[in-house]
């Protein structure tokens, strides 16, 4: 009897890990599809418009993707409650396949809408990773490692694309439809895998007291607004540097855009593991975020300054920026968990609005950047870009210190 129970537990755990792996790979594929599409923007606009277009139009797909992600978190929660984890996540992976449909639509506007639907699926996938990890993984150390792997999923996809666009540059841009079809088709495999093995389970916790923290309370929460806007500033640097700057660097500087993508994503992966190590040591959060934020923005600004003078120095500075960028990621996203009196319900509400604020702010900043680029040129656009990214540093300085005990212990020692 006991042997049967143990076998059942082992099978249950294996199924859970399979589900986590499918979602992780699906999100990596989403990142590959997004970054590859952005890298191929000149070829795509050439096909649909017959020549170069205004930067605002060429970046429209990126605006639509980030706009879709503003609403996707709230939509994900609603779909999860209505359908349960198996059908909800299956729906999300199914929406990712719109990236394949988009490639063969007749005009740029239909292509943009289909990619927007793909983005909704991608954002829902990353949301559904959390309840599945919580349900199947009970060991706290294992859970931390899995959550860390989930945070680096986008970087993994971006890194793969950067390697391919660096090593096989001519082949990748020869036919954008063939290239994107390759990336988007992988989603079909994960959709089939999900339907084959995924199981449903109850996501509601029983026996917990309800908390009197709702969306109205969250909207009045000053920390949440500072937190969300700080991440909007962070995303402005991160998303533009990975998604939009390949074509910009290729056009305006001596830098190779594929190489910069490779360096940011590759060193970002290394930075994530460094951030996990630093975070687990219980060091004070605010000084860590401030220092790494200053390094992140400062080195990227210097990289832009030397981009047409000393490319090798710029590449080095971009690598440092990517590393510093992702040292912060696991520490930054864990801050609400460390706030006094935090509850699961409050976390759910806070993160739903947090992602909406962050992506809305980043989308607005990107639109302004594109407008300046089209109307005033490269230099004013990059000055705005660095200014918008610097807002992160000033907002982090207003955060509460969530590691007071550790900081006090260090002083006493």
TrEMBL record:
GO terms for cellular component: plasma membrane. It is a multi-pass membrane protein. It is found in: Cell membrane. GO terms for molecular function: transmembrane transporter activity. The chain crosses the membrane at residues 16-36, 56-80, 92-110, 116-137, 149-168, 174-196, 224-249, 255-276, 288-307, 313-335, 347-372, 378-400. Keywords: Cell membrane, Membrane, Transmembrane, Transmembrane helix. The keyword Cell membrane applies. InterPro entries: MFS, MFS_Efflux_Transporters, MFS_trans_sf. It comes from the Bacteria. Its main location: membrane. PANTHER family: CHLORAMPHENICOL EFFLUX PUMP RV0191, PURINE EFFLUX PUMP PBUE. This is Putative MFS family arabinose efflux permease. It comes from Neobacillus bataviensis. The lineage of its organism: Bacteria, Bacillati, Bacillota, Bacilli, Bacillales.
């Amino acid at each position: 009897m006991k042997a049967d129970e143990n076998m059942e537990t082992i099978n249950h755990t294996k199924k859970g890990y399979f589900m986590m792996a499918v979602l992780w790979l699906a999100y990596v594929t989403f990142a590959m599809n997004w970054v590859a599409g952005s890298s191929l923007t000149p070829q795509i606009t050439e096909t649909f418009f017959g020549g170069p277009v205004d930067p605002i139009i060429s970046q429209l797909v990126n605006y639509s993707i980030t706009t879709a992600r503003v609403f996707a978190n709230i939509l994900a929660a609603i779909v999860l409650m209505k359908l349960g984890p198996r059908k909800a996540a299956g729906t999300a992976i199914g929406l990712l396949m719109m990236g394949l449909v988009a490639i063969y639509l007749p005009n740029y506007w239909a292509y943009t809408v289909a990619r927007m639907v793909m983005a909704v699926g991608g954002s829902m996938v990353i949301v559904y990773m959390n309840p599945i990890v919580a349900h199947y993984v009970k060991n706290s150390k294992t859970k931390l490692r899995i959550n860390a792997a989930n945070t680096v999923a986008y970087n993994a996809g971006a890194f793969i694309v950067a390697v391919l666009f660096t090593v096989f540059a001519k082949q990748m841009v020869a036919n954008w439809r063939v290239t994107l079809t390759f990336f988007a088709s992988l989603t079909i495999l994960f959709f089939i895998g999900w339907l084959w093995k995924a199981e449903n389970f109850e996501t509601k916790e029983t026996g917990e007291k309800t908390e009197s923290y709702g969306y109205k309370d969250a909207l009045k929460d000053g920390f949440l607004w500072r937190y969300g806007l700080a991440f909007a500033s962070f995303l402005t640097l991160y998303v533009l540097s990975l998604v939009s700057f390949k074509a910009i660097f290729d056009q305006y500087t001596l830098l190779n855009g594929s190489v910069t993508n490779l360096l940011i994503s590759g060193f970002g992966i290394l930075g994530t593991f460094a951030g996990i190590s630093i975070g687990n040591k219980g060091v004070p959060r605010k000084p860590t975020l401030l220092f790494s934020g200053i390094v992140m923005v400062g080195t990227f600004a210097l990289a832009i300054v030397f981009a047409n003078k000393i490319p090798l120095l710029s590449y080095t500075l971009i690598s440092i920026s990517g590393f510093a960028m992702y040292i912060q990621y696991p520490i930054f996203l864990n801050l609400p968990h460390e706030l006094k009196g935090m509850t699961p319900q409050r976390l759910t509400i806070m993160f739903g609005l947090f992602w909406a604020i962050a992506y809305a702010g980043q989308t607005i900043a990107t639109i302004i950047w594109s407008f300046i680029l089209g109307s005033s040129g490269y230099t004013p656009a990059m000055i705005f870009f660095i200014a918008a990214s610097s807002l992160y540093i000033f907002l982090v300085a207003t955060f509460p210190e969530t590691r007071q005990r550790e900081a006090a212990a260090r002083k006493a020692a």
